[in-house]
Amino acid sequence: KQDLSRKLVISTEMPFIRSKPRSRTMREKVTEEVKAAMKAGDKPRLTTLRLIQSAIKDRDIANRGNAKDAATDDEILQILAKMVKQREESAKAFEDGGRPELAANERAEIAIIRDFLPKQMDAAETEAAIRAVIAETGAAGVKDMGKVMAALREKFAGQMDFGKASGVVKGLLG
User: Residue 6 and residue 31: Cα distance in Å, rounded?
Assistant: First the structure.
């Protein structure tokens, strides 16, 4: 007969639990912020966060049509950078049109969206990064500008204004 009086020993090792804590994805961060804004009753923030979620879902749908996976964190960063740029242009248009209250709303949305973007590089950091990428890629002239810009976009997505960066690249290569 088996000894039924033995105590059950539970292993403390759980192979299904990762030993390193997994970092949250951008999608998870946005979802958590939506929940927090709902609980706090912060309607302007909630509206902007829902716009972000909508833009991400639009990209997911577009990717599905092209037989791709859901938007990655890098794609989400690109979406957020595009949203910031659109709102900056809108704010400027509203100011030029004499509608400062609408410009203020756009700037408030920009601040919320920027919470999800990495810290923007200043001019000195941008130039140093560009010089490093030029050295890495072996770019010698303006004809190599596309190669340098592609490498910058890959390494520093969401961290620099690529419109300004292209002018710096052109100046350093030309």
Answer: 47
